[in-house]
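Standup notes
- HV: blocked on the assembly model, inputs below
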Amino acid sequence: MKAVYFAWVRERIGLAEEDLAPPREVETVRQLIDWLAARGEGYAAAFANPKAIRAAIDKSHVAPDAPIAAAREIAFFPPMTGG
Amino acid sequence: MKAVYFAWVRERIGLAEEDLAPPREVETVRQLIDWLAARGEGYAAAFANPKAIRAAIDKSHVAPDAPIAAAREIAFFPPMTGG
Amino acid sequence: MEPTIRVQAEDFDAGCEEALLTQGRRDVGALVTFTGLCRDEEGTLAALELEHYPGMAEEEIGRVAQEALARWPLVGLTIIHRYGVIRPGERIVLVSAAARHRGEAFAAAEFLMDYLKTRAPFWKKERRVDRADAGWVAAKAVDDEAAARWEKL
Amino acid sequence: MEPTIRVQAEDFDAGCEEALLTQGRRDVGALVTFTGLCRDEEGTLAALELEHYPGMAEEEIGRVAQEALARWPLVGLTIIHRYGVIRPGERIVLVSAAARHRGEAFAAAEFLMDYLKTRAPFWKKERRVDRADAGWVAAKAVDDEAAARWEKL
């Protein structure tokens, strides 16, 4: 599974993208966030406030309880500020 | 007092403008409409439905009970359809 | 802020008017431009003849513009209304409102169009493709209602 | 009707986009164009850096456009969103909606802007005139509220 990060999520993690291989018990977006947050300081800072994190699977917005099993690309980013 | 007419009011009366000298007892826009309507067939047709007539005094919209004493120019026309 | 108001027979260029409102400025965050065009009504309309009340047209549009400026903090405003013969596909009216924020620009532009429809002294006569006689367009109740909803705000 | 959607670093010409939506047509009665520009915030802002999610940006704008088309009978629609470094006075976003009647064009353009603000994957970072470090713009509750009011319709 490819993970992509944007804005301050990207800056805090220090990566724009990476390949992830979470264990099988990580089934939802929320669980993936918890698993990522435990990976190190930058991840912990990026995901410190899960309410401020938005996610997309294969370029469509998803809710925190969305399953990640079929995801090819999962994205994490702050609330959008375009327009 | 100068009177100006627009759209189908103008067409029915057959004039774009004329000078009016109504008698002193004609004090309001509504009374002027009644006085004009009695002037002939074209006027009667133009003012047959007073509710369909809008008026302006010196280029500002006025209500039917507006006094006409100070008017230099009074205009009669149908509801506006610009825009 | 002094609005630009023009009543003219000639066509106008919306892009040019928009550029004039924003060029050299750094305080405009939102620009909303409405352009009203002549439709051919499924091929039945040959042209519109737009009659207007010279002098009052400019004055009344000016009064409507001042009402908009009293309601919303616009930083730029242009209103153009054409008269004369206008054919399908041609432009009739332009309202372009510049503001700091989008809500203000949208509200002001829509308010101005609703008020122009019911207050600016213009009258449309339709030339039909299949008829010799042209008929005056009747005022629409829906336009009165559109203007009336701003009274509640 | 196939909307025109572009996500690009280059500037755009609002007048040109409007002309493309109407030229050669006789069924457009109303064209509403919103242009969003970069404000200098009383001289404190040096530039915006607009980051976006390539691919998803186009797809999400496309989904929002389809929602607008399902709600209003638009006859033309163009949406352009820029990314990269944008300086005060420069354009950021354009929404241009063509319809038969003005109410539809106004509503669709405002809906699209409200939805783009909260759903299109773009993030603004501010470069300040007097500071070396740039900060990410926080999402505004007022934008969420603006988008939410369309849910009730």
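- HV (later): unblocked. Chains B and A do not touch (no CB pair under 8 Å). The longest helix of chain B spans residues 29-37.
- Next: hand off to the docking folks.
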